[in-house]
Amino acid sequence: MRVPNSVVLPVGTHVDCCQEEEVKEKSHDIMVKIAAMLAERKNNLAHFINNLEGSEEPKFYVDQWERLKAMESCTLTILNLVAVNCTDHRDIKKLEAAILEHVKREELFPEVVRVLPPVYRQVEAAIVEMAQSEEAADHGMMDLQHLLSRLSQREHLAHLGRELLQDILRYLHRIGLVVWYEEINHLESTVFLQPTFLITMFKLLVRYRLVQQLESIS
Fold first, then answer.
1. What integer is the mean pLDDT of 182-199?
2. What would you report as the CA-atom Rg of the chain, rounded to the nearest whole angstrom?
3. What is the extent of the structural domain holding 189?
4. Closest of 147, 144, 146, 130 to residue 181, by C-alpha
5. Which of 123, 133, 177, 205 is deepest in the core (most CB within 10 A)?
6. Span 90-134, pLDDT tens digits
């Protein structure tokens, strides 16, 4: 809700635990609740903005007003929910097809038609090769400067600069090939070449009924 022009695809899992009619009812209920949530958000923002504009000293609240106006301008497109059975590979392929179909819609993603400079593809191919090499660590973590040094050793990337690499990493982060948390001070110099490693770590740390599981250990 804080990202300009966001596009969200709701995904309902555990279809295998429901009857067909129940899936339809739950899917409809979720979409209705999302619509209500968005309407409430819009009304709340308008209410807060009106309160600030109508205050006795509005000049003291300029920063708050600007933040609220920025949030108000963030459009959020909600696509139709896709219900899947995660234990059925066919449903996973159905979800994949739905995502690809939406991503190709130019009205949703204008950048789809953008032509990337050749160096973007060259760096992408080099990073994929590095991540898959036997020398690569399982965690796939690499220092940004070390990554630049490794890439610069390749003849066609000898003139690759740090600023250009950062632009390319932002693109690769957006498409999910790498993970780079440049906005987090402690992580801005670390690039995760294996995003699946992070998923594995999160699965170990964030799990259903974790507190109860820990408390059950004597």
1. 90
2. 23
3. 118-202
4. 144
5. 123
6. 999 999 999 999 988 888 887 667 778 999 999 999 999 998 887
Residue owning tokens 């995660």: 86
With respect to residue 2, please indicate whether it lies within any of the assigned structural domains: no
Q: Please name every residue paired with 143 in a beta bridge, in sequence order, or none if there are none.
A: 190
Q: Using 50, 70 and 90 to split pLDDT, how confident is the model at 213?
A: confident
Asked if 136 contacts 193 with a C-beta cutoff of 8 angstroms, the reply is yes
CATH number for the domain harbouring residue 135: 1.10.10.10
Mean pLDDT to the nearest integer, 23-48: 92
pLDDT average, residue stretch 13-41: 93
Shared-domain flag, residues 134 and 162:
yes
Encode pLDDT of 141-179 as tens digits. Answer: 999 999 999 999 998 999 999 999 999 999 999 888 999
127 contacts 178 by C-beta, under 8 angstroms: yes
